[in-house]
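Let us begin with a simple case.
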Amino acid sequence: MLAGTAAFATIGLLPAWAQQKGGTLTVGLTYEIDTMNVYSTGFLGDAQAAVVEGLLAPDKDAKYVPVLATEVPTIENGGIVVSEDGKTMKITYKLRPGVTWHDGKPFTSADVKYTWEAVKDEKFIAESKDGSAEVASIDTPDELTAVVNYNTILPTFASTLFTFGIFPKHLLEGTDLNTSSYNETPVGTGPFKVTEFQRGQYVVTERYDGYWKKAENGDALPYLDKLIFKMIPDTNTLITQLKSGEVNLVVQTPYSQAKQVEGIDDIELIKGPLLSWQHLDFNFKRPSLADIAVRKAIAAGIDRNVLIKAQGGFPEAIKSPVVPVFEFYDPNTPEVAYDPAAAAKLLDDAGYVVGADGIRAKGDEKLSYTFMVQAGRADDELAQQVIIAQLKAIGIEATADNKTGVAYREARYNGGYDLIYGRWITSADPVYSVFWGTGGANNGQSYSNPTLDAAFQKFENTLDPAVRKDAAIEFQKILAEELPTISLTTNVALIAKTKKLKNFVPNPTNMTNFVDTAAWYME
């Protein structure tokens, strides 16, 4: 899945071809940015990744490389030390010297410690606080050393706290992070700094001339003058602006519009890998959706082949949220095969009778549901219509109730739906408990299973690969049998970019394609 993309050395050392400074790149986003705070946003942090940096970041092969740290901590290099009883660990980060914030102040270990304190603060409303509760304390013996003392073993440390971004202590300490102007104009250490934020419209970022990274030939980075992010939730409008030249990079081109994009002069379409999958989830507050017979019937009523064909043949069928590129993917995970006759029998046996209107019901509980996807996302809206038709064939009514922007985010988190279809994209070392663990940050379904929680706990609290593999097999089996979610397809990214943009390398993780923009340049 990750093979065949262009190569670069690491995020800290980049090749030099015939780069030249200058130029503006305008990016079309398919969603409205809710906040520029990387810990608060409910969407992928595309614009944020060009502005704010973490200690580490995943590269094109989903391998972690150093950014504000000088190396990735491991047991072998002494960066990770496990306690004698095997129950806790300590991670030491050596920080990169000479790094400054966009206001010119030096980046130090005090910023790392403050980031942990700010994220774990119960008053701070974050999209996820993953990795913060597991930290017992942080020592800062000098300005370029941060020693993180964990109260447990956390193999996924690199995919949570400190990787998404570091907060500037000197600007934020003592402020309310929920209402701070930082949420619109964050100050980071990245190659670009925010100069303008118009909610629902655009973010303008400009080159930070004090950026720490250099190209192999010694050039100061970044090369581009500006990165502008335009928020265009309607994908038809997005493609129109790509054709007109108002937008020259789209990293989420709808599958259904690939042929249109291929015909645009000076635009090339790149197929990039993704650690991503599409899924249908259930709100367990609805009594019938808490009924396993109904969930199994819905699973048996959906034909993945039709979904794939409707989306240009780009996705691939999947039966587990663990995409096959990961070594802990279990090919023996059970699955519910497409069988509408079996689906109908499941519902018959469970007492859901077809009414005069063709919709099944049992007592007062009618199998009629609101069905949400993110409005304006063409691929998802198309898949939604396919699923609606397939469910109708087995006596279940689903009515589109789509939302965009903050309204979509709030509904997703708070369970403002009966059925929801969408996509998740993970880090290079995923934490799955956030989706289906009891109280998980992305668990808006009100789903809870102590046995599943225990499997997640085992998976996420050991450095032993064999134990993690066994735990992964266990949680994949539970998810397949309990069906709080139906994993449907895995994805590729169709990236439409101007041919003038060079040094662009797709990134398959949830750190987005903008995690390393410094070497991009316009020919």
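The second case is a distinct protein. As before, the sequence precedes its structure tokens.
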Amino acid sequence: MEEVGCDGFAAYHAFLEVHPQEFVDLLNTVLINVTSFFRDTDAWDVLRRDVVPRILERKGDSGPIRIWSVGCATGEEPYSLAMLLAELLGTTEFCRRVKIYATDLDDAALDTARHATYSAREVESVPEPLLERYFDHANGQYVFQRELRKCVIFGRHNVVSDAPISRIDLLICRNLLIYLEADTQGVVLPRLHYALVNDGFLFLGKAETQLARSRMFEAVNLKSRIFSKVPQEWRRTAGGSLTIAGDGGGSRANQQLRLLESIVDSSSTGYLAVNAEGVLVFANAHARRLFDVEENDIGRPFHDLTISYRPTELRSRIEEVRNSGRMVRIDHQPFTRTGAEPMRLTIEVAPLCSRDGKPFATLLSFFDTSRIFLLQQEVEAAQESLETTIEELRSSNEELETTNEELQSTNEELETTNEELQSTNEELETMNEELRSTNDELEVTNDEMRRQSEEVGEYRRYSESILRSIDVGIIVLDDNLIVQAWNRWSENIWGLRNDDVTGEPFLDLDIGLPVQMLRRPLQDILETQAPAEPVEMEAMDRRGRRISCRIRISPLLYDNRQARGAILIIEDVTERARSDAFASYLGRIIGKSRNEVYFLDPVTFSVQLVNKGAEEKLGHSPDALRQIALHDLMPDIDAIAFTKLVAPLLQGEKAEIVFETTIERSDGSMRPAELCMQYFREEQPPILVALAHDVTERQRIGLSDDRLEAAPG
């Protein structure tokens, strides 16, 4: 009241009416989440030594064990139970057999419990061996082991109003009942009693001294506040039937008989009675209408009637009841009457005993459980749908399993607890919201996958466009020499489309290329995983034109591992071969030419290469010429003047330079010559070429012309 500024109870009550959220804040203030691992160690020792072994003995080697921790707070109590049972059963057997349901009203505490992360101070009470075995230590925090955590199911539950979880072997409700009024305790204790199996155990807190004084429980260890369930049997009067007051006229027996007959005939349950000789001795009105039993059928042998085998075989069940003395129940048997809707019948076969305890007949009771069966199917269908979603989120898994158990318990009390079913439906709506949230996350994931798929498709199209654009043949083979890729160049040259050859053995293709000659190189590539030397061979394209092909074969490697196939790169070198042949031919002609050809270093002007004509006219050997600069052969020009003369050519100012000079032979004789020099800067390395023409004959012809002009007449 101080926090919200209220002076009295009336003002605070009015504040609550106006602000519903204040109820939540008030509840969080009142609830005391006081808990710790193995709180009250002596009581836990008794539980481990005296109680859990009895549960394990009763369950055998494979029976499931169900435990409920009511008011679990931040999870220390259910995790203590998990460690205790894992020590006795082993982790594998624990995960297979044990389910621990942990419930509380405080959502914040439940969230902390689901994360199972505790500080060093909070785990001080955990024995050191258990701490090392069942907790992971990281960043100063202790996280409970994941495998065991999956078997602990947390959920929000109000033990006063919500349906209890059923078939519980051990129920722990420590220091919760002391906060409840006596009337509320009277509501809670029967719910805890109902939740336990007949020989189940209740473990209360040390402060709860008077609450266990109930005829529903008996003490196992009063000091440790451990109790066992006392089964509540249905009791009837000593006479085995009801009695009524007489009318004073001695007709009490007849009146009682008529009353009993009216009660039985007006019942919605069908009853048949078969005596020890197997004769049908009784059928109430509902049974006669349901199974078409006539008046004359009373007194006939039961095995002669249709009801003895329809809706199910009952003669063996009657015999079983007579031999064992125990009731037999047959659930939800399908039954259809002519012109009526199909229905489900639950049949109970029970012995009828006289006052001395001896059986004298067998009673067959038929209950219409069609609606329960349909509801059960709906619940089971909802359960299957929820279990499918369990794997997606761990917290959703815990909520779904808790809800599933509540649904099963609600189904058992469906006819008397409609309000509990409504509470469960509200929890299902909450789960549907979580499922919708999960669906949104899946849609985001799908969008991401779709984007990645588009990127992969774009990358594939990009790769295919590269293959189509390459002006050589690309053929990709797998390790069985089956064609995997065939680019456009190959389609144009060999006349086969990619779709026609993909998946076909390469060595079986009928194309202008002699593929059989490549068998051995391809096998060597797959074995050695090393590129082979290029192979040149003659082929014929799809137009019948003969071409020369240069084929390079490389291994197809994945992450630099073993070869997964081979790649063939095929080039049409027909024109190149012709060009190479022509160049070779031209080189031979120039080499044999009588004209002088000098290849010079553009820096030192030393002779790098000369043809046969220059070699013969100069009289020097090729080795001797490589030691001589061109201007050294010209007595009338020095190196500086020659460099200035050639400079415009080397600088790109002129395409060629032509000049006349005198060249000295090896024997010292001189001869006039005309030099034409060109610089090929694009070559690697750049080269300076000089073409020399001997002009001796030209001068002689010139002298003859002068003489002719000077001659008389």
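The chain has four domains: 31-234, 259-372, 470-578, 592-703. The longest helix spans residues 418-469.
Keep these points in mind for the review questions at the end of the chapter.
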